[in-house]
Amino acid sequence: MLNLHKNHRNLVLLAFIVFVVLSVGVAIIPAYQMQGYEPIPGQQDLTVQERRGLDIYIAEGCVGCHTQQVRNIEMDAQWGDRPALASDYYYSKKRLDIWRQSPSLLGSERTGPDLTNIGARQPADEWHLLHLYNPRLVVEASIMPQYTWMFHIKDTLQLNDKDITLPRSITEMTGSDVVVAGPDAIDLVAYLKSLQQFSFEDYDPPMDFIPALPKNATAGVGAAASKNPEGAGLFQNNCAACHQTNGRGVKGAFPPLAGSMIVNDKNPEQLIQIIMMGYDARPEYGAMPGLGNNLTDEEIKAITDHERSSWGNNAPEVPLETITRIRDSISNLPI
Amino acid sequence: MNNLLILLQDDLSTENWLTSPGVIGTIILIIIVVFLAIFILIKRLNNYVDLLDKNTEDLTETEFERKLINLSEEEVDDILELRQKGFKIKTEHGTAVIKEIPSNHSGFIKKIIDPKNPLFDEKSKTFDKIKVSPQLREIIVWYLTAAVFWLVFGTLVGQYLGMKFLWPEMDNASWLSFGRLRPVHTNTVFWGWASLAMVGLGHYVVAKTSNCEIFSYRRSKIAFWLMNASVVIGNIFLMAGINNGGGEYREYIWPVMALFAIGLIITFINFYKTVANRKLSEIYISNWFILASLIWTIVLSFIGYIPHYQDGLGETVIQGYYMHQGVGMWFMTFTLGLVYYFLPAALNKPIYSYSLGVLAFWTQMLFYTLIGTHHFVFSPLPWWLQTVAIVFSAGMFIPVFAGSTNFLMTMRGSWNNISKSYVLPFFLVGVVFYFVGSVQGSFQAFRFTNYLWHFTDFNVAHSHMTMYGIITFLLWACVYSLMPKITGIEPPQNLVGAHFWLAFIGLIAYMVSLMVGGTLKGLSWIEGNPFIESVILMKEYWVWRAVGGSLMFISHLIFAYNFYLMVRKQRPITLSRKQKREQQINTP
Questions:
Q1: Which of A285, A327, B362, B516 would you label with A253, given CA atoms 20 to 30 Å apart?
Q2: Taking the CB of residue B116, how many other CB atoms lie within 10 A of it?
Q3: CA of B134 to nearest chain A CA: how many angstroms apart?
């Protein structure tokens, strides 16, 4: 009938039609459906500056190494509070302009960390700028490229009020030179800081994280390896980006914890307060964000115990009640 | 759906990850590749030992005959000329002259025995030079020359990127930064190397199997310039930071990709009309694959670039579809079409089963089209779409089994030719990787293996296993089997051997290091270790990847040189010698 072996027209037509039908079914219709999702009530659109930052994020190919996709599996729980939803991408995944399509933000490779929630995890401008200028200044083992061309060197005397500078000591400036962040770097940081997973109070997750290990097995894993493995891991994920794994901080940007008076204080209250509410008392260092909403009391205990028993620090463990008490007193503070 | 989740939870324990079917399957597949390497090596060694055993007088009659027949015109000229010189001296000086003969290669026998190289077995030469029209030859040489250039350029960039994993501070230039160069590497080897090589070789297959000339060589040239312009402009844009949105393989913005798509459309019409003009009633199976892959890819580039359904996660659905079809419908389908012609031609026998080829064709279309979303398992895309993708990924076994069985059965009985031919090892590696790479890809789509390997360097290993192990090796096989036939010049066999082994060993080093490293990375994530540990643990595997990549890159330089030898203009000295002989014959 179709005589495909001899009729080239029928052969090509059939291959064409079947392929188009399959493509419509498996790609175009689902794509239209996915496009129909609406934003979560209260979710914010990107500002003009953040959009400029997104443009740079795409131009520099950040998506090649960084995902923005919290999958519904346990190992992704560290990247966000809940699995990603289609609505999360409502504002960020729009056509960029007439030349460029909607950005492929979900990514397919995680050579660097997922950035869904980087704005919440790392809200400090100073950190982001230093990290862009040279990632190895703040994360020693990083293999991320340095974006030095987004910065320029200026004489201190010619600085004006708007210039955002990087600490001179660690950027190895000589004379009166200082590194100034260019507009691209500032926009990109604004975009990165806007990356915060939108959470809503009475949110009922449609699907919870699928655990990797049976729950009861988790407690036993690695317990033998280190005295306080959970604390070390939590510290690595929440604190080490600034204070460094070795607790020495970054000179001129982030204070050391090794030998710190506050960390080693017999009375841990100030330490716990700083972790919960943040700290910006010393002008020579960057501001620290409060982590009280991201960490549970048990997690804070694990972190403080780790800090107080590592890098030569030697202070007693923190009782859980103290942490709970401080949290209560903070939440009772008049706003 | 709840049941499905519960099932998943049972599966997703990492304690026994080694016994998960996908992981076991992958390990078996890697063993197959290693076995293949050993097989080819033993075949070669065996021959070498034979060679040492044999005395020169053992040279069998058939072999002697073969060598006589295989002597190229040029070599015969050389021998004749030497003999002539010898004769000349003789007539001038009488008997004392024999010592003064300018060369000891003065007879056929010497010529036959001397070239025995102890390092490798001499391969049989391609028999006749095939008559092709100068226009066809010209267009093939055009396409392949550009392809070879893009291969060297693209893998140079790839090599540089691989080194950046070890030395991230190699440079400070914006246009050389990792994020901008990565798509330059992938797009160059896709649209520059593999696509142009395929279309160039396709010209020969379409013309040859239709037994007529290509419909319009002028159009072929227009398509050639369009596609090359697309790669040149696209790469400049990428390095300048202008890309379409970061979606893999569609990083070129639409005006640039439109050039390529127009090139495809012109090529399709050109090939279609050539097939329509064919002198035989049947359409050879290669043309099924070639025409279909062109029409599918044209559809694909439209679907990939039309914006109306690509806001929000619509873009993600299309991205999964597009990147998988780009590989499956364009590179894989077209290359299979080439192999259905070049493999039987190289073995000088018909394809094992024509109907198996037809089955492979339709199942390729049916299954490959539906599996794009397996790049986004566990993402917020609809669960049903993910499940369809996973199920049909398993369905991919059918076309893959059909194809690789067909090729292997065609090769059956000709295994001894492997040590005698420099083309067959390329085919064999390509076909085995077709099986191994595709089946491994299907395993990778399973939920547990995806859980373990997704986002890790394992993906990079997989894409090199397929785009390099399958497509590139098969394209090399086709180039080496075609070029000597249409230009009449063979590359030196030791250089082809060097090309083969460097590329093959390099690929294995590349692939295994990233697979092992990727697995450890996935396990580290599952255990909930701090992220930076997974970066640190990869360091040594990235070193081995760079080593493997270097071997691959060196092999491409050798390939480029071999290619140059095959297409360079005939040395004028040959002509003048011929003329001399003619003059001598003509003058009494």
A1: A327
A2: 12
A3: 27
Q: Is B272 on the interface with A (CB under 8 A)?
A: yes
β-pairing verdict for A278-279 and A288-289 = antiparallel
Contact B178 A22 (CB under 8 A): no
Q: Which ipTM score applies to this complex? A: 0.82
Q: Which two tokens stand for residue B210?
A: 């239709």
With contact defined as beta carbons under 8 Å apart, do A308 and A317 qualify? yes
Set out the domains of chain A in order of their start, with CATH numbers.
48-194 (1.10.760.10), 225-331 (1.10.760.10)
Instruction: Report the interhelical angle of A183-194 vs A125-133 (nearest 10°).
Output: 120
Distance CA A185, CA A195 (A): 16
Phi, psi of A279 (to 5 degrees): -160, 130
Query: Where along chain B do its domains lie?
Result: 21-49+125-568
Q: Which tokens sit at A31?
A: 């794509």
In angstroms, the Cα distances linking B206 to A55, A139, B267, B479, B509 are 44, 56, 11, 15, 36
Query: What is the full per-residue pLDDT of chain B (588 aa) written as tens digits?
Result: 333 433 444 445 556 677 777 888 888 888 888 888 888 888 878 777 776 665 444 556 666 777 777 777 888 888 787 777 665 555 555 554 444 444 554 444 444 444 445 555 556 555 557 888 999 999 999 999 999 999 999 999 999 999 999 999 999 899 999 999 999 999 999 999 999 999 999 999 999 999 999 999 999 999 999 999 999 999 999 999 999 999 999 999 999 999 999 999 999 999 999 999 999 899 999 999 999 999 999 999 999 999 999 999 999 999 999 999 999 999 999 999 999 999 999 888 899 999 999 999 999 999 889 898 888 888 888 888 888 898 899 889 999 999 999 999 999 888 777 767 889 999 999 999 999 999 999 998 888 888 899 999 999 999 999 999 999 999 999 999 999 989 888 899 899 999 999 999 999 999 999 999 999 999 999 988 889 999 999 999 999 999 999 999 999 999 999 999 999 876 544 445 555 555 566 554
A 269-328 residues with CB below 8 A of B?
Answer: none
Closest by CA position to B153, among listed B141, B163, B165, B145: B145
What residues have CB less than 8 Å from B483, skipping those under 6 apart?
B144, B489, B563, B566, B567
Q: Looking at the complex, does the CB of residue B385 fall below 8 Å from at least one CB of chain A?
A: yes
Which helix (DSSP H) or strand (DSSP E) does residue B389 occupy?
Answer: helix B383-395
Tokens of A55: 């443009």
CATH 1.10.150.120 fits B21-49+125-568, yes or no: no
CA B347, chain centre distance (Å): 18
CA distance B235 to B191: 11
CB atoms within 10 A of CB B526: 19
> Whole-angstrom Cα distance, residue A94 to residue A273?
41
Rounded to 10 degrees, the C-alpha dihedral B147/B149/B154/B158 comes to: 130
* Chain B residue with the nearest C-alpha to that of A93: B312
Q: Which residue has the tokens 């439209």?
A: B302
DSSP 8-state secondary structure symbol assigned to residue A269? H
Helix (H) or strand (E) holding A181: strand A177-181
Please give the Cα distance from A243 to A241 (Å, whole number): 6
In Å, how far from its chain's centre is CA B149? Answer: 14
